[in-house]
């Protein structure tokens, strides 16, 4: 039985954090704006299009951004404002469909196969959404319209900024064949290097390998790669993605040894526990079972240590005790220094209401 044809829109705000700053401070308009704290430990949260011309990109070290663009204006991030604007944009989405899958504050998938407005096409719906965003927030967004999620996401990047690209089913093959394989979701540098060694540079080349050879090379991921090369993606828009982890992390001003991390672990445990309690208030039937400690060394190696418990700690202090104990599972030399630590709760599962109180100490959590 064939899968019904969907109409998917991927909306992506243009240089979102930087654009909010330029909107709210007219002196920043036309300037190369970098949203980041200054300092050796900071990374770029966002860069305006003026800064991107110099090679500045999100997630790069702030010091490198400063070297690439010495005239950049650095602005510290204000996530309270960004979240407020994101809520405005989500309200605009909700006028058209209930099927909204946020990916972050600045982008989302929308299934507009059927809409509240009865607009004649997904193209018209995307145009209406972009117009409303511009008029109501003073910001611009780009949109991709396609028959599935992964194609819509690629399309939204096609005419940035403030653009829209429509990929109709009949045009999918011609669009994909010349596309570099690196444009497919999940194809990172390692996979791209393996494919390049085989002379595979485009999606058309990848398609020629066939599903059997791709599966032999990459396992189940190879099957998925073959489907993507054909433009196949059956994943639906999921409006309510369940929480997989609640966590907090922090980068230190200076690298620290393992035995100096306890105060930071306890502080982050309090933040994580508060976030977990908020999550339980929203969905009291889902509980976490696993405590996670994340560490990043001075040379950027990431380590995680976790412990799944029969009974979850019932307060922030107990969570911190477990997280501190997980340090004992780190088997690196004492001379190793750490630049980041994080504390998380994961392994969420559904439990029935009768079992919750006994197993997980809900009274002690003070969810009210």
UniProtKB/TrEMBL annotation:
CDD domains membership: PolY_Pol_IV_kappa
Record's cofactor remark: Binds 2 magnesium ions per subunit.
Binding site for Mg(2+): 12, 106
Catalytic activity annotation: DNA(n) + a 2'-deoxyribonucleoside 5'-triphosphate = DNA(n+1) + diphosphate
Keyword Transferase annotated: yes
Cofactor: Mg(2+)
Compartmental location: Cytoplasm
HAMAP family: DNApol_IV
GO annotation, biological process: DNA repair; DNA-templated DNA replication; error-prone translesion synthesis; SOS response
Residues under site feature: Substrate discrimination: 17
Alphabetized InterPro entries for the sequence: DNA/RNA_pol_sf, DNA_pol_Y-fam_lit_finger_sf, DNA_pol_Y-fam_little_finger, DNA_polymerase-Y, DNApol_IV, IMS_HHH_1, Rev_trsase/Diguanyl_cyclase, UmuC
Catalytic-site annotation from UniProt: 107
Enzyme nomenclature, EC number: 2.7.7.7
Signal sequence range: none
Encoding gene per record: dinB
Protein name, as recorded: DNA polymerase IV
GO molecular function terms listed in the Swiss-Prot or TrEMBL record: damaged DNA binding; DNA-directed DNA polymerase activity; magnesium ion binding
Subunit structure: Monomer.
PROSITE patterns: UMUC (PS50173)
Organism: Marilutibacter alkalisoli
Role, per record: Poorly processive, error-prone DNA polymerase involved in untargeted mutagenesis. Copies undamaged DNA at stalled replication forks, which arise in vivo from mismatched or misaligned primer ends. These misaligned primers can be extended by PolIV. Exhibits no 3'-5' exonuclease (proofreading) activity. May be involved in translesional synthesis, in conjunction with the beta clamp from PolIII.
Keywords, comma-separated and alphabetical: Cytoplasm, DNA damage, DNA repair, DNA replication, DNA-binding, DNA-directed DNA polymerase, Magnesium, Metal-binding, Mutator protein, Nucleotidyltransferase, Transferase
UmuC domain residues: 8-188
Membership in a protein family: Belongs to the DNA polymerase type-Y family.
GO cellular component, one term: cytosol
């Amino acid at each position: 039985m064939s899968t019904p044809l969907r109409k998917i829109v991927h909306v992506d705000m243009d240089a979102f954090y930087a654009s909010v700053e330029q909107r709210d401070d007219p002196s920043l308009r036309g300037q190369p704006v970098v949203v980041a704290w200054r300092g050796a430990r900071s990374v770029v949260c966002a860069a305006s299009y003026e800064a991107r011309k110099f090679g500045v990109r999100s997630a790069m070290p702030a010091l490198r951004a400063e070297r690439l663009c010495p005239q950049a204006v650095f602005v510290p991030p204000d996530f309270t404002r960004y979240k407020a604007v994101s809520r405005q944009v989500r309200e605009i989405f909700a006028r058209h469909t209930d099927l909204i899958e946020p990916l972050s504050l600045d982008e989302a998938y929308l299934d507009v196969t059927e809409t509240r407005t009865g607009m004649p096409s997904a193209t018209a719906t995307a145009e209406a959404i972009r117009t409303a965003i511009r008029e109501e927030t003073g910001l611009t967004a780009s949109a991709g319209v396609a028959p599935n999620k992964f194609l819509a996401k690629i399309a939204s990047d096609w005419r940035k900024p403030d653009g829209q690209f429509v990929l109709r089913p009949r045009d999918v093959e011609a669009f994909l064949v010349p596309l570099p394989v690196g444009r497919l979701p999940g194809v990172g540098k390692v996979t791209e290097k393996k494919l390049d060694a085989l002379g595979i540079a485009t999606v058309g080349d990848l398609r020629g390998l066939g599903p059997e050879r791709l599966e032999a090379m990459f396992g189940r991921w190879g099957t998925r790669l073959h489907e993507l090369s054909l433009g196949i993606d059956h994943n639906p828009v999921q409006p309510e993605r369940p929480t997989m982890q609640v966590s907090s992390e922090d980068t230190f001003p200076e690298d620290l040894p393992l035995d100096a991390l306890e105060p930071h672990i306890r502080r982050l445990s309090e933040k994580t526990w508060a976030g977990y309690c908020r999550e339980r208030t929203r969905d009291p039937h889902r509980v976490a079972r696993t405590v996670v400690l994340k560490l990043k060394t001075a040379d950027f190696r990431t380590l995680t240590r976790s412990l799944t418990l029969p009974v979850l700690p019932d307060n922030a202090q107990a969570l911190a005790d477990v997280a501190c104990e997980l340090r004992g599972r780190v088997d690196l030399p004492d001379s190793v220094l750490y630049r980041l630590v994080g504390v998380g709760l994961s392994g969420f599962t559904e439990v029935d209401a009768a079992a919750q109180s006994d197993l997980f100490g809900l009274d002690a959590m003070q969810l009210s």
